[in-house]
Amino acid sequence: MKVKGAAYCITDGHERIRIGPEEDIFIMGFKYIAFALLIVPVLTQVPPGAPVITGPQIIIFGQQVTLTCTVTDGQPTPTVKWLRDNVVIDETYTISGNTVVNTYSFQASSQEHLEVFECQSENGVLQNPLSRTIFVEVYRSPNQPTLTGPTQVAPGTPTTWTCRSEGGYPIQTMTMRIGNSQFSSNQFTTNTQFIQTSESYTVVGTLTFPPSLANNGQTLFCDVRHTDTLTAPQTVSLPLRVISPLSVTAPNTFYNPAETETVSLICVVTAGNPTQIRWYKNSQLLPVNGRFSGGTVSGPALTISGVVMSDAGTYICEATDGSATVRTNNIQLSPIERSVSEFDIITSILNGYNKLVRPIDPVNNVTHSLIPKETIEFDPKTLRFEAMQCISWNDPRLSWPRGQPRVSLPSSEIWLPDIVMLGQEVMHDFEAKAIVMKNGDVTYCPQGVIKSTNCEEKSGSVWECNFKFLSWSYDKVMLDIHFPSVLTRPSIDMAIYYQHEEYEIVSQCAVRREMSYPCRVGTYPELTYTFVIRRRRSFCTNLNASPTCN
């Protein structure tokens, strides 16, 4: 049964329960409260205000810089962070009421130059964070300028000085002055270049002007101004000396005196006041002493007494006043050679010559060779040759610089190596002369009879005979004997040998040994010349049976 004005609700599917108007009102109120609880959180989320950046846009290199980003309002409280090149560099901030502040500090360097700093704030209400940026320029003072150029000049000579300033940003300005007088743009110009790698400017100033004597003792200044970073200009200076130029000249640049004459090489100071005169020969400083005189401030000319051929060369006169050094043109000296006779050469080389003293200490190198001329006598035990010994060595005392290439001297007048034949005194048929060359090479070829008593029969009518030579008094340390080089002459020269009618020389050889003797101290070079001789017979034809020299 339904009652009018009442509501029914089925419970558990079997029973209806009546609900009246009072219960309807209660249920409606409950539903409203639930809806309100769901919508209130959405209505209280508020986006933050736009970031506000405070801080300098132009900063000075090395300066401590602070950039402040301020954000107000926002529910929930927003975060505030700094970024550079899309990279977070600071995300710390402070909250005061409804204001959030992030303060970022750094020391200005070249890395911050022309950089963009970005401040972002967000609290999740908006899809993207709010952002503000600031563009920063780093102003840099230029490096200390440099001023280059001469400090001493001749009056009236156009001269150039260069001032250089690097590393400034923005552009620095440059001026130059002498004392307090500024140079005009006709005399001083600048060239400015932006260096991309350092993002800075380089300014090069060039000053060209001819100083006068009135400028002597004044100072050149280069001033670089950079008002963005410096309160006073950067200044560099050079002292200036303007003096009369030093000048020397050589009126004559060629001299050809004869040997033994005296000659003066003229040097004239035409301007200035030198404090020193120097002479050079072949680019080497010439000591002025002995045969050389002059070369002073009061007498600049160089005088050479007793000219010799070695004085030939290129001479230069140099003058200096302590600050400037000048030179003459090249002065050529070409002495005329005086003719030298054989008398002059022999007189010169034998003057003071001591034939008892070896030419070279500690060792003399001597070559020895044998030139047989004729077989005088042969029996089975003895062989006698008419022969020449050719002995060569160098004696620097017997050299001369010019003239004929060689002279002939009696062997009794010079030192001779005491080479003797072992077991026999060599008898010379006359005093052989020695041939002496210009460089001191001596060749001595005495001729005489040499006899070998050391002949040994080898086979049938074949004999082997030896001749041994050595120094009588000098060992190897003092006199070393060798055979001549194959390129100069053979150790045994048979070119002029006159064949014997009964005996013929089948072979010959020379051997050098170093020997010690019981009665002497030291080692002695010993030269052995061996000859193989046979009788001229028709049946003696087998040369292969002849002994060889070993």
Could you tell me the CATH topology label of the largest domain: Acetylcholine Binding Protein, Chain: A
Number of strands: 45
Major β-sheet profile: 8 strands, mixed
Structural class determined from secondary elements: mainly beta
- Mean pLDDT score: 87
Helix content bin: under 10%
Q: If helices are DSSP runs of H or I spanning 4 or more residues, what is the number of helices?
A: 2
Query: Strand percentage, roughly?
Result: over 45%
Task: Please identify which CATH superfamily of the largest domain we are dealing with.
Answer: Neurotransmitter-gated ion-channel ligand-binding domain
Terminal residue distance: 165 Å
Gross morphology is: elongated
Known CATH architecture of the largest domain: Distorted Sandwich
Contiguous low-pLDDT stretches (5 residues minimum) are: 1-17, 538-546
CATH class of the largest domain: Mainly Beta
Cα Rg = 58 Å
Please give the domain count: 5
Provide a brief overview of the structure.
With 550 residues, this protein is mostly beta strands. The chain is 6% helix and 47% strand. The chain crosses the membrane at residues 25-44.
Could you explain how this protein is built, in words?
- The protein has 550 residues and is mainly β.
- It folds into five domains: 37 residues; 88 residues, Immunoglobulin-like; 97 residues, Immunoglobulins (Immunoglobulin-like); 87 residues, Sandwich (Immunoglobulin-like); 202 residues, Acetylcholine Binding Protein, Chain: A (Distorted Sandwich), CATH 2.70.170.10.
- The protein is built from two helices and 45 strands.
- The chain starts with 6 loop residues before the first strand and ends in a 15-residue tail after the last strand.
